[in-house]
Amino acid sequence: MKTRMEIEKKRVAGVSVIAAFFLTGFKLVIGLLTGSLGLLSEALHSGLDLVAAVITWFSVRISDTPPDKNHHYGHGKIENFSALIETFLLLITCAWIIYEAVHRLLSGDTKIEVNMWSYIVVMISIAIDFARSRALYKVARKYNSQALEADALHFSTDIWSSAVVLLGLILAQFGWFFADSVAALAVAFIVLGVSWQLGKRATDMLLDRVPVSVVSQIETVLNQSVGVVKYHDLRVRSSGAEHFVELTIHVQPGLSLAEAHEVSHYVEKQITKEVSRSYVHVHIEPDKHASEAWETMTV
User: Fold this and answer.
1) Is the pTM of this model over 0.85?
2) Of 156, 179, 206, which residue is a domain's last?
3) Are 9 and 145 contacting, i.e. CB atoms less than 8 angstroms apart?
């Protein structure tokens, strides 16, 4: 039976696919009719967003699949991999936009036709992008989904790039046709910035880079945990929305096996409470220095 999390993630990802499909077609038609490079670059951007949205939709369907005999840590990495694919798609977008914009500016072929539909498509695009980015961010933060967060970043970036294109259209209306190509370049640089953020995060996850913020949360819990003398060998790896934690704690000497287990169980419970969707393994050792102090006291 599907969980509420799976239903919400799949629904918001599915609606994003529909929204991206509509925006891509609308921008492409109006861009071809007007010859606006700004709108055509936006159409290409939205087209790759459509591909990214489809990838996200598939990834969230797979990522929550339970662990099996071939994937002991589950399938969460598929979300990180999809985010990396989205990065490459965005870079392809940038390459085409920059090439076409520079070519038009150097050749002087910048004249475009600006009409009512040019403004309508951009305004509708901004409204849809705003609604979709908010919905995606809400679910992404709720369930710690990098794939949905990457998709939300795509839509929120489209808001700014559409605003830049709108400005270019307004200036072109007054005869400054070169502004459309300049606007397209601005879109490209916005997309480059987003690509860098997405690519870095996805690569860090795939290479098991230490999630500093998560480690900080765990260390705070450990420093406040009753019964833990000290700890070491803290290791954390992230896979999609899940975190796998391993550590060794030292406890007071003289504790029974049941008492020591109770301490480790308490630590696991506190960490999972602080870090959502975390799986914790705690190894217990009697503290050597505390043990020596205890033996000195009992002599």
Assistant:
1) no
2) 206
3) yes
